[in-house]
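Extended Data, record Delta-aminolevulinic acid dehydratase
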Amino acid sequence: MIPFRRHRRLRRTPYLRDLVREHRVHADDLVYPMFVEEGLQGTSPIQSMPGVARYGLDALRREIASLSEIGLKSVILFGIPREKDERSSSAYHEHGVVQEAIRAIKAENPDLVVMTDVCLCEYNPLGQCGLVQDGKIVNDPTLELLAKTAVSHAQAGADIVAPSDMMDGRVAAIRAALDANGYEDVIILSYAVKYASSFYGPFREAADSAPQFGDRKSYQMDPANGREAMREARSDLEEGADMLMVKPALAYMDVTARLREAFDVPIATYNVSGEYSMVKAAAQRGWIDERAIVMEMMTSFKRAGADLILTYHAPDVLRWLREDER
């Protein structure tokens, strides 16, 4: 008889399976993306993202208090301003919507890690991530505005700034501006590997940021490219990034794994709006076990090498983790 190994021995009981489990999802891993709308009273549900809403400042504080009680430790903020202009000036205004949201969160829970998305697309009427001149998205003139935005977030109390624009050189510009203004301790989490993905659709409703002409393929990456991801990540580290992000998460776990092998810095992955909404829609129809699917996804992100998971599922995952502790 040909000898064989009895691998099932290690799977025989729940406690044995727990004993040899290689990857676990913790509350510490989760970052909750939140949308804050200037002038909004209360909340405004986002139709394409069941369970997710835009928040006014008072509602934001209440939600932060509630989520802190179940273990939330980190958020990333996206702002929806009342007014937009071609230079995205509300992105870096001292009393802009994100700046005021940072102050509100820190007043409610000073220990919460506050990350901020640094981009221009929500703040200009054309919905582009860079400054537009003569119908083109121009790289170098955009860098000054991104740096001003990052500094304004730091001044308001942000712990981490996360440039998502995909302009060349933006990490170097932001690092130089932060350091020159005395914010050497503010961390840069770079959206180093951000693909021109079809999974972003619901987000563009949530953030009112759909491009009004063309697309974003001249600065976001081609989904077919993997080696390019390594070049982008390496450049951002050389420019001063402290952490790297892959976006989206689910369709690009191979890229997360490649970054994990190559670099010894914290790696984040963004479980984006389309990935979230597909799960929610299927769960609402009774086609899947939502909790089982979501936890399998979270575990897969960890297995691929992610240290941080940005996900709209965060409140549900926190509740499930707490239930499991009882």
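Summary. The chain has a mean pLDDT of 93.
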